[in-house]
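Encode chain A's predicted structure.
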Amino acid sequence: MQKMLTQDVDCLPEERQRIILERLASEGRVLAQDLAQQFGISEDTIRRDLRELAAAGLCQRVYGGALPLSPASSSLAERVTLGSPEKQALGEKLASLLPQGVVIFVDGGSTNQAAMRALPQNHAFTLITNSPSIAAEVAGRECVELIVIGGRVDPRTGGAFGVRTLRDIADLRPDVYLLGTCALDVVAGIAVFGFDEAEFKRTLLAQSRRVIAAATTDKLGTSAPYGVAALHVLGDLVLESDAPAEWVLAAQTEGVSIHHAVTMSGNAA
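Encoded structure for chain A:
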């Protein structure tokens, strides 16, 4: 149940915005209509507050309210060193979902990199990627046909994006697309931090037969500036065991098959 706010209409904007951020941190999302009623002010004033908070990089505006920003805004090098056991568990579960003898496009990203590292040495497939670090994980394996898409590499994601990459993927029809995720929300869908990255992912989503992804719990219920697609485009999604049950149920209602990662100790991650 939402807590009722006691601030009056003369509450200073800075104080009101601080309270909004507290609500966002504790509840995972805020709605402009609810905030306006609880502060006793107009929705226009609340929307202005949310715009200012979003401009300051403190939240992400979505239709009707705001969501927290995804932690995936950090660089790939930083994310590779964070949550290593969890990323390893997610990567191992992802690897177990990848069939042999098919064409798989793999996005850049620390979890996808962990998945490539976890694949058995004799796992035979065709790997297409726009990420040098992903390619490096399987380079030299005789059972893997490796195709690398070129272009300018984004240091945050480790993947190449832009006009050249869009041209190079135009005729691809992967059997599986291992989608790199930045932010996932049941209502707002899948979002990323780069304009070119969003266009790249939308193109591959439209051309792929099956889409698989993984996400750490801190990405759930968050957003980013550029929308990619609704959540239901995912066929399979690998999550940690502490993913909120309500979120999992809502994703399953959208038709997404949920899989939980398992740690080395045998417990769900």
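The first strand starts at residue 30 and ends at 31.
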